[in-house]
UniProtKB/TrEMBL annotation, chain A:
Gene Ontology biological process terms, A to Z: transmembrane transport
InterPro entries listed in its UniProt record: MetI-like (IPR000515), MetI-like_sf (IPR035906)
Organism: Shinella kummerowiae
Domain ABC transmembrane type-1: 175-381
Family to which this protein belongs: Belongs to the binding-protein-dependent transport system permease family. CysTW subfamily.
Protein name: ABC transporter permease subunit
TrEMBL record, chain B:
Species of provenance: Shinella kummerowiae
Protein name: Extracellular solute-binding protein
Record's signal peptide: 1-27
One matching Pfam family: SBP_bac_8
Family matches, as PANTHER family: ABC TRANSPORTER SUBSTRATE-BINDING PROTEIN (PTHR30222:SF2), SPERMIDINE/PUTRESCINE-BINDING PERIPLASMIC PROTEIN (PTHR30222)
C-alpha cells in the first residue's frame, strides 16, 4: 500500500516539471487573459468618491455639482501615473476624446496658482452627459463590454444588448472569414497531402527519404522567408505569371496576389507538412499486404482504396486536418503580406488591440471567442473520432 | 538505490532552481531600440558604435515596429529589457501621460532652446523629423503626380496605388484629395461629417488600393511595378535612390511630417547611460552626419545648419519642402486612433 503511494508520489515528482511548465506557461496566461477580458477595476480604483454620487444621476441632464466636486477630489488624490493611464485608456476606448480631456484636466488641477472653479471651466466637454455616462458605465469592477464587442454587440443607454452600428461591426465578419479561410486551407492541404503521403509511404529507400525531405525542409525554413518567397512567385511580374505568359497560356497576368487566391496558395504550402506527417505516420503502420489481399479477393483498385486503405488511414487524415485548421486560424503574417484588404484574419485585429492600443481587455475577449470556437470544433472532432473507434 | 535516486532528483531540482534564480542578477548592457532598416544601419555607424567606444562597453541594438502596448507590457512587467527607445509622437504622448518613461534631464541634452519646439518634451528628445509622402518611379512616370488629387486620379495616372493600412494618414490624404485645405484639415477630420467625407473619398479609390504594413513594402511595390504610386516614408525613398540607383520621386506638397523621439523606459536598468546616449546622439556634430545616410530632418538646430546643401534639399525640414506640408496632429490621433481603426477595419471588410 505504502509502496504504491510512494511510487505515485515519485512519478508525480517526475511529472512535476511538466506540470509546473503547463501551469506557468499555459494555464496561468490563459486564465489571466480571460480575466483581463471581464475584469475592469481600473476606473473604480481611482474614482471611489465619484462612484458614490454618480449612482443618483439620471444619465441625461448635465453633471451635478456634487459629481463634479467628487471627480475633482478623486483626480487630485491620484498619485500613480500608470494607474491613471489604465483608467484613461479604458475611458477613451468607450468614448474618444478622454485622452486629451483628462490630460488637460489633470494638469489644470495640478496648477496651484489658479485653481479652476469647476470642471466645465477647464473644458466644455465636461458639460456633455456622454463623457459622464462613459465614467458611470466603467465603474463596475466586472464588465461584459469587451466580450459583447468581440461579437459586435453592445449595450444601449437603457442597458439592453443590441447590435453595434454597421460602421463599427467588423469582428463577426472577420471571425467567419477566419474560419472559412482555415477550412479552405485544410481542404486543399488534405487534397494534396493525402495522395502525397500515400505515395511516400508506398516507396522505400532514397525515394521515400527524398519525398519526406521535400516536405520537411520547408518546415525548417522561417515562415517569413517562405511567405516572402511566395510574394516573389505570385506577383504580377512574378515567375508564375511570366512563365504562363511565356508559354502562351495567358495574355494578361493572373491576379494571384493581394487576394484570397494568394493567401490560400501560400498558407496551403506553409501548412502542408502538418497534414502529410500525421497521415504518413498512420499509413506506414498499415500492413503492406492488405491492398494485394483486397485485390486477390476481387476488389478493383478504387474499391480496395475506399474499403480498406481510406478507413484505416482516416485517423491520420483527421488529426492532420485538426492540426492544419487550428494552426491556420491563428495566421497573421501570411494574410498581411500576401492578402488583400478582404483577407484580414482575426489575429491582426487581436494584434492591433494588444500592441497598437494596449487594450488588453478587447484582445483578451477576442482571444476568448477564438478559443471557445476552437474548443467547440475540437469537441465535435473528438466526438466523431470516438464514434469511429466505437464502431470498430 | 531509492535514496540515491531521490537525492539525485532533489539535487537536480536545486541546481535548476538556483540557476534560474541567479540568472537575472547578470548585468545587461545598454540596449537601444530603433526602427530597423537602412535607418538603423546609419544609426549604428554614427551613434551606437562611437558611443560604445566612448563608453568602453558594448551597446546592444534592437529593432521594433512600434505600438504602445509593447512598451506598456515591458514597463509593467518590471525591469524592462530595453533602455533607450525611439518612439513615434503618439507613443511619446501616451507613454508620458501613463508614466512609462523616465523624465528627460534637459541640462544633459544641452538645454531645450537648442532644439525645435516640436522636439522638446518632458519625456522625450526629438531624434528625427520624417515625412509620409507620395512616391513614384521617375523612370516610369515622366510627368508625375503633384498632389493627392492626382493620386486619386486613376484616369490621368493609370495603375494601382498603395497606402499604409490604417486610418492614420489615410483619412488625412483622402480629405486633402477631396479639396480640404491643409489649414482646415484637422478641423474637418474632427467632425463626424469630416470622417464620413474621408471614407466616401476612399470608396472611390478602394478597388485600386494595395495596402502596405511595413515601411519596406511600398519600395518593393514601386520597384516591381505592382503600383504606379504609393505613400512612403521619405527617408526610405532617398535611401533606395542612393543605394540602388533608382529614380524614385518624393512629392513633398501635401506630405505629413512628424517627430520621432528618444525616450528612456521607466526604471530601466541602464537609465543613466541611456540619457548619456541620447545626449551623445543629439550632439550637433554627431547628428549632422545622419542626412548623408538617411534623408530625415534634424531636430537639433545647430546640427541642421551643418548639413551640406546636397543632402539638405532632400530633408522634410528643408524650407522648400516644408512650405506645403502638414504637421501630424498628435492629440487628434491619441483621442481617436482606437475608434477610427475599428471603423477603418469595418470599412475594409465591407
Amino acid at each position: 500500500m505504502s509502496g504504491g503511494s510512494s511510487r505515485t508520489g515519485r512519478s508525480l515528482l517526475l511529472l512535476a516539471p511538466l506540470l509546473v511548465f503547463l501551469i506557468g506557461f499555459f494555464v496561468w496566461p490563459l486564465f489571466s487573459m480571460m480575466s483581463q477580458a471581464i475584469s475592469d477595476p481600473a476606473v473604480l480604483r481611482l474614482l471611489p468618491r465619484s462612484a458614490e454620487v454618480i449612482g443618483d444621476w439620471d444619465r441625461k441632464s448635465p453633471p451635478t455639482m456634487p459629481m463634479q466636486a467628487a471627480l475633482v477630489e478623486d483626480l487630485k488624490a491620484v498619485d500613480d501615473d500608470q494607474a491613471l493611464g489604465d483608467m484613461v485608456r479604458r475611458l477613451n476606448s468607450a468614448r474618444s476624446g478622454f485622452r486629451t480631456l483628462m490630460s488637460k484636466t489633470t494638469s489644470a488641477l495640478a496648477d496651484p496658482a489658479n485653481p479652476p472653479a469647476d470642471l466645465v471651466s477647464i473644458d466644455k466637454r465636461w458639460e456633455k452627459p456622454e463623457f459622464w455616462i462613459a465614467i458611470a458605465d466603467a465603474l463596475s469592477p466586472y464588465t461584459d463590454r469587451n466580450l459583447l464587442a468581440a461579437v459586435d454587440l453592445g449595450r444601449n443607454a437603457a442597458g439592453n444588448i443590441e447590435h453595434l452600428p454597421a460602421d463599427q461591426s467588423v469582428n463577426r465578419v472577420i471571425l467567419v472569414r477566419t474560419f472559412w479561410i482555415a477550412a479552405l486551407v485544410t481542404f486543399f492541404c488534405a487534397c494534396i497531402g493525402f495522395p502525397y503521403a500515400i505515395i511516400a509511404a508506398s516507396l522505400d529507400g532514397w525515394k521515400r527519404d527524398l519525398m519526406l525531405g521535400a516536405v520537411l525542409l520547408p518546415l525548417w525554413t522561417s515562415l517569413l522567408v517562405r511567405t516572402a518567397a511566395w510574394f516573389i512567385l505570385l506577383q504580377e511580374q512574378g515567375l508564375i505569371n511570366d512563365l504562363l505568359r511565356g508559354i502562351g497560356l495567358i495574355d494578361a497576368p493572373l491576379a494571384l496576389i493581394f487576394n484570397r487566391t494568394g493567401v490560400i496558395i501560400a498558407m496551403t504550402h506553409v501548412l502542408l507538412p502538418f497534414m502529410v506527417l500525421p497521415i504518413y505516420s498512420v499509413l506506414i503502420t498499415i500492413p503492406k499486404n492488405l491492398m494485394p489481399a483486397a485485390a486477390s479477393l476481387g476488389a478493383p483498385p478504387l474499391r480496395a482504396f475506399l474499403r480498406v486503405l481510406l478507413p484505416l488511414s482516416l485517423r491520420g487524415v483527421a488529426s492532420g486536418c485538426l492540426l492544419v485548421f487550428i494552426s491556420a486560424i491563428g495566421y497573421y503574417i501570411t494574410p498581411a503580406l500576401i492578402g488583400g484588404p478582404g483577407d484580414q484574419m482575426i489575429s491582426s485585429i487581436i494584434a492591433f488591440y494588444a500592441t497598437g492600443s494596449a487594450n488588453w481587455g478587447m484582445a483578451g475577449a477576442l482571444g476568448m471567442v477564438l478559443l471557445v470556437a476552437t474548443l467547440v470544433l475540437y469537441s465535435v472532432y473528438a466526438r466523431l473520432s470516438n464514434d469511429e473507434s466505437g464502431r470498430r | 538505490m531509492k535514496t540515491i535516486m531521490k537525492s539525485g532528483i532533489l539535487t537536480a531540482a536545486a541546481v535548476v532552481l538556483s540557476a534560474s534564480l541567479a540568472l537575472p542578477a547578470l548585468a545587461r548592457d545598454l540596449t537601444v531600440v530603433s526602427w530597423g532598416g537602412n535607418y538603423q544601419d546609419a544609426q549604428r555607424n554614427i551613434y551606437f558604435k562611437p558611443f560604445s567606444e566612448k563608453l568602453g562597453k558594448p551597446v546592444l541594438d534592437e529593432a521594433w515596429d512600434g505600438g504602445i502596448g509593447v512598451i506598456q507590457s515591458k514597463v509593467k512587467a518590471g525591469a524592462p529589457n530595453w533602455d533607450a527607445v525611439q518612439v513615434e509622437a503618439e507613443e511619446l504622448a501616451l507613454g508620458c501621460a501613463d508614466g512609462l518613461y523616465e523624465k528627460i534631464d534637459w541640462d544633459k541634452m544641452g538645454g531645450k532652446d537648442k532644439f525645435l519646439d516640436s522636439a522638446v518634451n518632458d519625456c522625450g528628445v526629438g531624434a528625427i523629423v520624417w515625412s509620409t509622402a507620395i512616391a513614384y518611379d521617375g523612370a516610369k512616370l515622366k510627368e508625375g503626380p503633384t498632389s493627392w488629387a492626382d493620386f486619386w486620379n486613376v484616369e490621368k495616372f493609370p495603375g494601382k496605388r498603395s497606402l499604409r493600412k490604417g486610418p492614420k494618414y489615410t483619412l488625412e490624404f483622402a480629405l486633402l484629395a477631396d479639396g480640404v485645405s491643409k489649414d482646415e484639415l484637422y478641423d474637418v477630420l474632427g467632425t463626424d461629417e469630416g470622417v464620413e467625407r474621408a471614407f466616401k473619398k476612399l470608396d472611390e479609390l478602394k478597388s485600386n488600393i494595395v495596402w502596405w504594413e511595413s515601411g519596406a513594402q511600398p519600395l518593393q511595390f514601386l520597384a516591381s511595378g505592382e503600383v504606379a504610386m504609393t505613400s512612403a516614408y521619405n527617408g526610405r525613398i532617398t535611401g533606395i535612390n542612393r543605394t540602388e540607383g533608382k529614380n524614385f520621386k518624393v512629392v513633398f506638397p501635401g506630405s505629413i511630417y512628424a517627430v520621432d523621439s528618444w525616450v528612456v523606459l521607466k526604471d530601466a536598468e541602464n537609465k543613466d547611460a541611456a540619457q548619456d546616449f541620447i545626449a551623445f546622439a543629439s550632439l550637433p556634430d554627431n547628428q549632422a552626419k545622419l542626412p548623408e545616410f538617411v534623408a530625415y530632418g534634424l531636430p537639433n538646430k545647430e546640427a541642421a545648419s551643418k548639413v551640406p546643401a546636397e543632402f539638405a534639399k532632400d530633408l522634410p525640414t528643408d524650407p522648400a519642402n516644408m512650405t506645403d506640408s502638414i504637421p501630424l496632429n498628435v492629440d487628434f490621433w491619441i483621442d481617436n486612433a482606437e475608434s477610427l481603426t475599428q471603423r477603418f477595419n469595418a470599412w475594409l471588410a465591407q
